[in-house]
């Protein structure tokens, strides 16, 4: 069973307001992420909120989604990863976890299902997306890597674990993976391509 975690606790400091609420094609970025997650083959969907949670929560209306709030979000993304892993670790039926962000608007059900399918096909402990000469999220991790995910600190994200275990990584191409929204210029460029 795969649990999907949407990491959405950051403060969007370079933007000045929650990027999770930016509109793209009539939906907020958090709504786009949640919709892709719910349509996918993942069995459980969890959203980790932190900064601006009160502004973002109204856009998460589906009852089947579990929302957890990270009081330590200021530490960095590692705190959200640790919190999510602790939240699911007790459930022995969860065999792997898939992390995604809400600022990659081109993540869709097909991509998520490709990651899960590649994992079933290869048995790899890590299945990650390949884009722009790098490997990163969305990425799926086998349960045996939960201790490593729990050891992350500060701004260390899933990429650190991917880089530490190259022998167990299988990649799925995600051409538009490098498109993420950190600044107004990024957002304007995204809208320009509509």
Overview of this structure, please?
- By secondary structure, this protein is α/β, with parallel strands linked by helices.
- The chain has one domain: Spore Coat Polysaccharide Biosynthesis Protein SpsA, Chain A.
- 32% of the residues lie in helices and 25% in strands.
- The chain is built from 7 helices and 9 strands; from the N terminus they run βββαβαβαβαββααβα.
- It has helices spanning 29-39, 53-56, 77-89, 109-122, 146-150, 158-164, 184-192; strands at residues 2-8, 23-24, 27-28, 44-49, 65-69, 96-101, 126-131, 134-142, 169-173.
- The strands form 2 sheets. Strands 5-4-1-6-8-7-9 form a 7-stranded mixed sheet, with helices on both faces. A two-stranded antiparallel ribbon has the order 2-3.
- A hairpin with a 2-residue loop joins β7 (126-131) and β8.
- The longest helix has 14 residues, at 109-122.
- It is globular.
- The termini are far apart.
In short:
The protein has 194 residues and is an alpha/beta fold. It contains seven helices and nine strands; from the N terminus they run βββαβαβαβαββααβα.
Question: Which descriptors apply to this entry?
Answer:
alpha/beta; seven-stranded mixed sheet; two-stranded antiparallel sheet; 194 residues; 9 strands; Spore Coat Polysaccharide Biosynthesis Protein SpsA, Chain A
Please write out the topology.
Blueprint (H helix, E strand, L loop, with lengths): L1 E7 L14 E2 L2 E2 H11 L4 E6 L3 H4 L8 E5 L7 H13 L6 E6 L7 H14 L3 E6 L2 E9 L3 H5 L7 H7 L4 E5 L10 H9 L2
Parallel strand pairs: 1-4, 1-6, 4-5, 7-9
Antiparallel strand pairs: 2-3, 6-8, 7-8
């Amino acid at each position: 069973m795969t649990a999907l975690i949407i990491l959405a606790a950051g403060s969007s400091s370079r933007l000045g307001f929650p990027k999770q609420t930016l509109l793209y094609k009539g939906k907020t970025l958090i709504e786009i992420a949640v919709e892709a997650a719910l349509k996918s083959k993942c069995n459980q969907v969890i959203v980790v909120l932190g900064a601006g949670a009160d502004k973002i929560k109204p856009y998460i209306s589906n009852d089947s989604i579990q929302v957890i709030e990270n009081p330590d979000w200021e530490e960095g993304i590692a705190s959200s990863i640790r919190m999510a892993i602790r939240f699911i670790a007790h459930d022995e039926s969860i065999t792997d976890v898939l992390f995604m962000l809400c600022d990659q608007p081109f993540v869709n059900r097909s991509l998520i299902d490709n990651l899960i399918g590649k994992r079933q096909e290869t048995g790899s402990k890590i299945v990650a997306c390949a884009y722009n000469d790098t490997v990163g999220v969305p990425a799926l991790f086998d349960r045996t890597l939960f201790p490593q995910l729990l050891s992350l600190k500060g701004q260390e994200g899933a990429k650190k674990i991917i880089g530490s275990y190259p022998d167990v990584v299988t990649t799925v191409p995600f051409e538009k993976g490098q498109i993420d929204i950190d600044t107004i210029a990024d957002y304007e460029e995204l809208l320009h391509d509509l």
